[in-house]
Every structure is written in structure tokens, then in C-alpha cells.
Amino acid sequence: MTNCDDIDNVNEGDSAYVTTTAAEYIQYIETTNEWSQWRDELAEAMLQNDSCITLG
């Protein structure tokens, strides 16, 4: 049995969630360092978790 970091332990940082209504239009979006860091940490955690799975 292999021990892996739990993907639920990834720090989401200052993630912002936005809701819109039918009357609102999104004019533009920007990425933030917090979002980029969260995404990178999530990808790394997923890769580490996947590498712990053994086939056979």
C-alpha cells in the first residue's frame, strides 16, 4: 500500500467565485497569481496522486 497526499489538502488560497444574472455580461476576465498558484498546486497534487496508483 502506498501513502499519497490527499488532494483535498490543496490550499485554494484566495479563490474568488462570481455569479452573474441574465442581465449581466462579462466584459473581460483576468487571471490572478492566486488562481495560477492554486491551479499549479492542484495539477501537481493530481500528478503525485496519479503516480501513486499501481497497475496490475
TrEMBL record:
Domain of life: Eukaryota
Record protein name field: Retrotransposon protein
